[in-house]
Amino acid sequence: MQGTLQGRKRKLVQAILYETIAIAVLSPVISLAYDDGLAHAGALSLMLSTSALCWNVLYNYLFEYWESRQIQRTRTLARRLLHSFGFEGGLVLMLVPLVAWWLNISWWAALITNLGLFVFFFFYALLFQWLFDRVFGVPTSAQACAN
After folding, report:
1. Taking the model in full, what pTM does it have?
2. Torsion of CA 116, 81, 90, 53, to 10 degrees
3. How many domains would you assign to the chain?
4. Which sign does the torsion angle of CA 46, 125, 8, 91 carry?
5. CA dist., res. 29 & res. 48, Å (int)
6. pLDDT confidence band for 1 (50 / 70 / 90)
7. Rounded to an integer, what distance in angstroms lies between the CA atom of residue 90 and that of residue 143?
8. Enclosing domain of residue 53
């Protein structure tokens, strides 16, 4: 039996849980990929996740606003793909300068790094949101309208 979590509380729980898992996964990966200390990579992960957390709250608010105005309000695979692509694509563009500066790499290398992160997090976001919806129920914006 799934629970139901709505409104601001849903957005906050979803964003914090998503980013907490992301930090736990991202820190060792960055440390290994750049032969960097775990503390330095962890600090970058924290900055990336803090940025992503802010983007997550804003993006999900805007996405659910749009979603609630659609004739078909169920979360289809196409809608989930749109959600993941929009979130991760926007995040990649926002984080290139931070990654370039922190890792002392070119913007091109930072873009490639972010694109690699995009591939991983695209699938992570898709799976995470599907599981989150299964556990906590879908938001009101994705529920069919009562006739």
Report:
1. 0.66
2. -90
3. 1
4. positive
5. 13
6. very low
7. 26
8. 7-135
